[in-house]
């Protein structure tokens, strides 16, 4: 199960239900995908084919919606 928590600018933000417990978010676009840690600070965990420009754009989106993403994580996985 991988619930979508946000869509913006051609990107889909989601997490997998059976993955590691450290809060993070996956992002998918037709160009590639990436994973960002939400804690202890926002940082790139891995990237597959997204350009540096796209990664900056995605990071900016995550920063703007950080509280929403953390709330979605906590609601889904528990505090």
Report what the structure shows.
- With 79 residues, the protein is an alpha+beta fold.
- Helix content is 32%, strand content 34%.
- It is built from 2 helices and 5 strands, in the order βββββαα.
- The protein has helices spanning 52-64, 66-77; strands spanning 4-8, 11-14, 24-29, 32-37, 43-48.
- The protein has a 5-stranded antiparallel beta sheet, covered by helices on one side.
- A hairpin with a 5-residue loop joins strand 4 (32-37) and strand 5.
- It is globular and about 35 Å long.
- The mean pLDDT is 95.
SSE diagram, text form:
Layout: E1 4-8, E2 11-14, E3 24-29, E4 32-37, E5 43-48, H1 52-64, H2 66-77
Antiparallel strand pairs: 1-2, 2-3, 3-4, 4-5
């Amino acid at each position: 199960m991988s619930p979508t928590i946000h869509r913006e600018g051609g990107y889909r933000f989601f997490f997998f239900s059976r993955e590691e417990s450290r809060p993070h978010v996956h992002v998918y676009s037709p160009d590639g995908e990436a994973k960002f840690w939400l804690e202890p600070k926002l940082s790139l965990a891995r990237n597959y084919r997204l350009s540096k420009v796209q990664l900056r754009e995605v990071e900016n989106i995550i920063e703007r919606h950080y509280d929403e993403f953390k709330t979605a994580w906590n609601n889904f996985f528990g505090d």
